[in-house]
UniProtKB/TrEMBL annotation, chains A, B, C, D:
<dbReference type="GO" id="GO:0046570">
    <property type="term" value="F:methylthioribulose 1-phosphate dehydratase activity"/>
</dbReference>
<dbReference type="InterPro" id="IPR001303">
    <property type="entry name" value="Aldolase_II/adducin_N"/>
</dbReference>
<feature type="binding site">
    <location>
        <position position="98"/>
    </location>
    <ligand>
        <name>substrate</name>
    </ligand>
</feature>
<dbReference type="InterPro" id="IPR027514">
    <property type="entry name" value="Salvage_MtnB_euk"/>
</dbReference>
<dbReference type="InterPro" id="IPR017714">
    <property type="entry name" value="MethylthioRu-1-P_deHdtase_MtnB"/>
</dbReference>
<dbReference type="Pfam" id="PF00596">
    <property type="entry name" value="Aldolase_II"/>
</dbReference>
<feature type="domain" description="Class II aldolase/adducin N-terminal">
    <location>
        <begin position="20"/>
        <end position="222"/>
    </location>
</feature>
<dbReference type="GO" id="GO:0008270">
    <property type="term" value="F:zinc ion binding"/>
</dbReference>
<keyword id="KW-0479">Metal-binding</keyword>
<feature type="binding site">
    <location>
        <position position="195"/>
    </location>
    <ligand>
        <name>Zn(2+)</name>
    </ligand>
</feature>
<dbReference type="InterPro" id="IPR036409">
    <property type="entry name" value="Aldolase_II/adducin_N_sf"/>
</dbReference>
<feature type="binding site">
    <location>
        <position position="116"/>
    </location>
    <ligand>
        <name>Zn(2+)</name>
    </ligand>
</feature>
<keyword id="KW-0028">Amino-acid biosynthesis</keyword>
<keyword id="KW-0456">Lyase</keyword>
<comment type="pathway">
    <text>Amino-acid biosynthesis; L-methionine biosynthesis via salvage pathway; L-methionine from S-methyl-5-thio-alpha-D-ribose 1-phosphate: step 2/6.</text>
</comment>
<comment type="function">
    <text>Catalyzes the dehydration of methylthioribulose-1-phosphate (MTRu-1-P) into 2,3-diketo-5-methylthiopentyl-1-phosphate (DK-MTP-1-P).</text>
</comment>
<feature type="binding site">
    <location>
        <position position="118"/>
    </location>
    <ligand>
        <name>Zn(2+)</name>
    </ligand>
</feature>
Length: 236, 236, 236, 236
């Protein structure tokens, strides 16, 4: 089913085509400090196709021809088969190790796009909040949507983002991320301790603005915590 | 009165036309960290027209055709009528939730432009100054103008910026912002606790440089406070 | 002697012409946080002409036609005459208030260019070093030149930058800056407490790299001081 | 053997030619704060040629014609001969003072590219880790390769980067850097106390991503140390 020649799936003059957007957005994320050193990235689901960047490459120098295209819903690879692709790059590239984590957002939240960052604000939040959940209230949380895809939170709500423990292999986070998403059905993202964060949205614009909102909140929360300021005014 | 076809109000080859400036300035503000995650923005009043960006969109990707045009002075909407527009985008967009706050700057200060940021420097200032007013002296405050539109402050003056309390809905800040502007007639901006700041000027250049000056002062003040340095040398 | 029509002094296709360089460099300085909110700038002396930016404008939006050209050596204005220009902009602009300070660098150090920043690293250094001189040793000071225009410092030397007290009017710093330059003949710059720094070099490239070196040292010194690390290992 | 006219070695339309890449990468490193004030840089080895930038110049304004080309393996200069070049710029430029240090990475690690930064994160790490080696565990170290050119580290490993003491002349670091590379055969870089870091890779992409990974780790480690958080969870 995979074809190395299915270039028509990633060649487009439309700047909003996923294969053009992913390289552009990754360049922008690089300058935000979210995806340096080959870490992090974004995937976009459009109808029955999922567009994913390669792993282990410079994220600010991705080309549309480097993009993988997978079917949605995915035919899960069995122990005896490889993952199924609609298109893979001719180069010797491997799809992002985040692929199964991105899939959680599609399957459990009906997301159209999922972003993974190694933002230091997210990592510091997981170090300064040592329990299983990051919480903040009375900040500009109203940009964040319930479950990442629902209605906006209110200024009076408490934002909760679960924190899962890191594993040596990115793929092994799939189950614990899914569990956290089930346990915290309103969570708009999942933090990974000492590693980063996964955030999603109904489409790439919303996934990106959700990530910006959460990253902003992680940053200000870390500043507040280090300054000795309370970060949670609501009764817990 | 509103017309979705009045595109001539926002289509111009002049880079200094408000409908071209707003997208350009919002891109710049995005990179300054002032308007990430759809928050914040700028409006420009030119003669009897006010140009306003949409709400809830990626502020670094606004197009001139997304801009709303309102008459000035505004025909205030009654409980039974909608807000009056000279031009609204064809897309399913809503005007910035800051609209009534921007209006305060026109009505009470005769401003030609007003900027709203979620700058973390402004937010941290509202957390570290817990009274109703932020004060600093003996810094480069001479770029700030009295009331935002008057003569420049002197190095020997004390800069005062009132801080109002946040509300769940942006619109509900209108009255408390207006009260603060009346109570502090020399204030060049109004801080909103745990939220951001509103700053204005006689035109977009001056609103922008006023915002830069104040943001610079919030940033250095927060650094000083966290380093244990006194921020107010004048007798209070 | 001043002519508003002497546009040939500032119109050139050469990107290295001072009237083209000043706008480009100011844009770059804006993004470094050195000249936001209309503060700071750069002047360039080429032979018998000095090129200076206007005061009170957005430094990242200067055009070549905004540049003032003055003769060097300057005919000092008497109480009854205005400053002498070879060219001034047609617009209602005033030359940079730093002009007499820039002149110190020409007269006392034979500089070809002088830069003034409001960098927060410089300002914080003046707050954390409360005596008349900022000192650091055992950092990458070897990029700094003795007196700003001489041989490079050695890693084993101590870098000294005098700090003068701020005044309400920029022009009034002229004498105390000159005194500091005489008292500290090896100084590569002069800090102004709660305000910023003046740095110079034999030409614009060297003035810029000197400013970068010093700003880097102010930044790391402030970080060290706040972390409780000693900043001076040489015997004082 | 040196020729000032061998311009064909540095003139190419291929953006990935080393003489085009070095200027582009240095511009990017400048904006990351790695090479301001003429410090730092990158060299690229391609087959039997080594491409090196000049010393003491603005690293963000290098042109391809400024690049030096040296043979590999190098004919070591004797006390009576100069270093041997295949091409040197017509201008009065000197090759980077890092040249012998870059050579360590070629000779001891078979690197294809080596990067030197003055990143403040690296410098602060050398100040806060006062022994001969920087160590961190349980962070995103898996982007770092064993010895800089081997297999990736695991999340469960401890990253070790030796720290050597600075010397007044860059060239004099050659032997102590080589010793550290021999003593720590798995090290992916060498920190220089109060100065910066050297990092390498099999080619320029990998040298760059290795540098990004290490710089990210220095940055987060410094934040953790200053926040009082433990940086080493593995038994030492």
């Amino acid at each position: 089913m995979a074809s190395e020649n299915a270039d028509s799936l990633v060649i487009s003059n439309d700047p909003l085509h996923p294969a053009n957007l992913i390289p552009e957005l990754c360049r922008s994320f690089y300058h935000l400090g979210w995806v340096t050193g080959t870490g992090g990235g974004i995937c976009i689901r459009a109808g029955d196709k999922v567009y994913i960047a390669p792993s282990g490459v410079q994220k600010e120098r991705i080309e549309p021809t480097h993009i993988f295209v997978l079917p949605y819903p995915q035919v899960e690879p069995s122990p005896h088969t490889d993952r199924v692709f609609l298109r893979r790059p001719a180069l010797n590239l491997k799809e992002s190790a985040c692929t199964p984590l991105f899939w959680n957002s599609f399957d459990l939240r009906n997301a159209g796009s999922c972003i993974h960052t190694h933002s230091q604000h997210a990592v510091m939040a997981t170090l300064l909040w040592d329990g299983p959940v990051f919480k903040i209230s009375h900040q500009m949380i109203k940009g964040v949507r319930i479950a990442g895809t629902g209605a906006a939170l209110s200024y009076l709500d408490t934002l909760e983002v679960p924190i899962i423990e890191n594993t040596p292999n990115e793929e092994d986070l799939k189950d614990s991320m899914a569990e956290a998403m089930v346990k915290y059905p309103n969570a708009a993202g999942v933090l990974v301790r000492r590693h980063g964060v996964y955030v999603w949205g109904l489409d790439w614009e919303k996934a990106k603005t959700q990530t910006e909102c959460l990253d902003y909140l992680f940053e200000i929360s870390v500043k507040m915590k280090l300054a000795g300021l309370p970060t949670l005014l609501n009764a817990d």
